[in-house]
Amino acid sequence: MAHIVVIGGGPAGLAAAEALAAGGCAVTVVERMPTIGRKMLMAGRGGLNLTHSESLERFLTRYGAARPWLEPALLAFSPDELRNWAAGLGQPCFVGSSGRVFPQAMKASPLLRAWGARLAEQGVTILTRHAWTGWDGPGRVRVVSPQGERVLAADAVVLALGGASWARLGSDGAWTGLLAGAGVDLAPFRPANCGFRTDWSDTLRARFAGTPLRGIALTPEGGGPTVRGEAVVTAHGLEGGAVYALSALLRDRIAAEGQARLMVDLRPDMTEAALAERLARVRGRESLSNTLRKALRLPPVAVALLREGPDAPPRDAPSLARLIKAVPVTLTAPDSLDRAISVAGGVRADAVDARFMLRALPGVFVAGEMLDWEAPTGGYLLQACFATGRAAAHGVLDWLQEGGKERYPSCP
Ligand SMILES: Cc1cc2nc3c(=O)[nH]c(=O)nc-3n(C[C@H](O)[C@H](O)[C@H](O)COP(=O)(O)OP(=O)(O)OC[C@H]3O[C@@H](n4cnc5c(N)ncnc54)[C@H](O)[C@@H]3O)c2cc1C
């Protein structure tokens, strides 16, 4: 029986382990943290958006430039299959109003518990508090645990160590040194689904850091889609769903031009003319804050945003209405990599073959966020991690079947 070592106990690694065990392999999962799936548990705090219910054709477009090389894996383990899989673990899903798919429990812990139990039934060994540190000759994986160093013999290895954000949950991107040293082509990490920095006034920062701007619409100046939703004012800028949806575009624009401007529509459901008419009805001796509250029910954080420009907000109703429809916010940099929901960069598409096997290291397969793709929030991240985990496992099974190990005796 072939013995496969899977490194990383996140969704990609566990999906690979499950498929490998089902394929008849003995499987050991190596996880550096005390428990598996920490980032998935964190995703569960937001309800665990597992996947999306839109048409498969539209779904696939979300992976942008990475679509061609991810598509076979996503077709082989589609959003419907992921939902069935979750239901099979006692976690049926529902479709939220935005089309996003969540387990009914709206958290990850019951799913992870049931999954861990199934893996144990399949005979998968999970070594927690074990960190992969490199190779010890062909087919020998070096790991370090509190008990000291150990070497695991492997017929093939699946790497699923995650990206490089939220390092405290386990994925710190330190694997790049090991793979670059072995000649694997890597793209530098960039934050994806991230917040941005801007120079708020001290007043806005002190009074409103952490406050959501609800029911707004964001449009990047200079071209780009308008996204409705919520943004949150942070001490140094803006984050939240609507910002994340534009983050790849904004990040690349800042990289090219040094900064990017975002136009915030504080009342996207009303036309400029309607706003002006309402404002004209209230204004008079009222203060700006009172006028905006009475006429438009604008919350204090929105009023503060209107005051952020170099000049005081205009007094006349038509000009004020124009500003409410497009408050400019200049973004100077993406927020730190560690705060990003996910990362772009990692193992480049041409560094792996169609089975997700590293061309530079035959017998070593890669899955999940380690691979150089990005997608918006909406369940696309977890779906691709599950799908590439399974695809890498099937890649291992095919490779073993074809005698790959015998043909590449020098594989690590
Ligand atoms: C706050 C937050 C909310 C999110 N919400 C959603 C959501 O709702 N929907 C969605 O689709 N996506 C969401 N994501 C993204 C999603 O959680 C990740 O894309 C996904 O977990 C990545 O899976 P992975 O298996 O590739 O890596 P990870 O989940 O990061 O797992 C990698 C594992 O490898 C381990 N590891 C790393 N280095 C070593 C080593 N040297 N030795 C041994 N083990 C190692 C790590 O400890 C970790 O457990 C969210 C992310 C965050 C941060």
TrEMBL record:
Q: InterPro entries from the entry?
A: BaiN-like, BaiN-like_dom_sf, FAD/NAD-bd_sf, Flavoprotein_PP4765, RsdA/BaiN/AoA(So)-like_dom, RsdA/BaiN/AoA(So)_Rossmann
Recorded protein name is TIGR03862 family flavoprotein
| Residue ranges constituting the RsdA/BaiN/AoA(So)-like insert domain according to the UniProt record | 190-342
Domain RsdA/BaiN/AoA(So)-like Rossmann fold-like residue range list: 3-394
Q: Which Gene3D superfamilies match?
A: FAD/NAD(P)-binding domain (3.50.50.60), HI0933 insert domain-like (1.10.8.260), Translation factors (2.40.30.10)
Q: Does the keyword Glycosyltransferase apply?
A: no
- Cofactor(s) the protein needs: FAD
Q: Which keywords label this protein?
A: FAD, Flavoprotein
